[in-house]
Amino acid sequence: xxxxxxxxxxxxxxxxxxxxxxxxxxxxxxxxxxxxxxxxxxxxxxxxxxxxxxxxxxxxxxxxxxxxxxxxxxxxxx
Length: 78
What we know:
Layout (H helix, E strand, L loop, with lengths): L2 E5 L5 H12 L5 E3 L5 H6 L7 E6 L2 E7 L3 H9 L1
Parallel strand pairs: 1-2
Antiparallel strand pairs: 1-3, 3-4
Protein name: Thioredoxin
Organism: Sphingobacterium bovistauri
InterPro entries: Glutaredoxin, Thioredoxin-like_sf
């Protein structure tokens, strides 16, 4: 099963949309604020929020930047 990490910050409306979407689909994910954990933001090359990373082991399978339901659906369906 893929591991999903969502990089977000608290006052970000698109971040909230991504959370609502994933919650409604019953998808579990980790939430990371890149300002609180900059080393992880650097590791995953996160430059903006929201950024959703789908991992297979340590390999990044998908990277979705912003709220893009079609891309999220495709990434989680695999």
